[in-house]
Specification:
By secondary structure, the protein is of the alpha+beta class. It is built from 4 helices and 4 strands.
């Protein structure tokens, strides 16, 4: 009496096609997730770059407004309408950037003596400073100097050149690396 052999259990049939399909689906899902992650990173980087570009452009616009020259009529230190508008822009920027220091340099055209033009340039720089300080900017924030006719912006002896040389120039001497745009209207 021998024992009958144990019954043979059939081994499960492996469906390789199902295994391959499941593996492909897993890889595709992982690839989609990685692509979505890369897209998200790229969008975030693009938004960051765009934000930095806009901030740089805004800062350059502020810097440009702050350093834009103003112009005067012949033999005058009176602040005209266009100069008043430019000074009002500078005023708003200075109010938002108390750490900024400016040097205003007064200039004149070549007509008149050297001494007269130095004095006229000084009066022009002082007029711009006075305009700003009378509106709340501390005097210590602004220094003035005159170059008279020594540093012409335009060469020539015609009215076009003279008009460009009758000016105040504005130079940022401190605090210009962190300019903020004025808030409000």
């Amino acid at each position: 009496p021998r024992n009958p052999p144990p019954p043979v259990t059939p081994s499960p049939t492996v469906n390789q096609d199902s295994i391959d399909a499941a593996e492909r689906a897993r890889r595709e899902a992982a690839e989609r997730a990685e692509a979505a992650r890369r897209d998200s990173i790229n969008r975030a980087n693009a938004a960051r770059e765009d934000s930095l570009r806009r901030a740089r452009e805004a800062m350059e616009g502020v810097r440009s407004a702050l350093t834009a020259p103003i112009y005067f009529d012949y033999d005058s230190d009176a602040i005209g309408e266009a100069a008043r508008s430019a000074l009002d822009q500078k005023l708003a920027i200075l109010q938002s950037n108390s750490g900024v220091r400016l040097r205003i340099s007064g200039h004149a055209d070549e007509r008149g003596s050297d001494e007269y033009n130095l004095a006229l340039g000084q009066r022009r720089a002082a007029a711009a400073k006075r305009y700003l300080t009378q509106r709340g900017i501390p005097e210590a924030q602004i220094e003035i100097i005159s170059f008279g006719e020594e540093r012409p912006a335009a060469s020539g002896s015609d009215e076009s050149a003279f008009a460009q040389n009758r000016r105040d120039e504005f130079e940022i001497t401190a605090g210009g690396d962190a300019l903020r745009a004025p808030s409000g209207p």
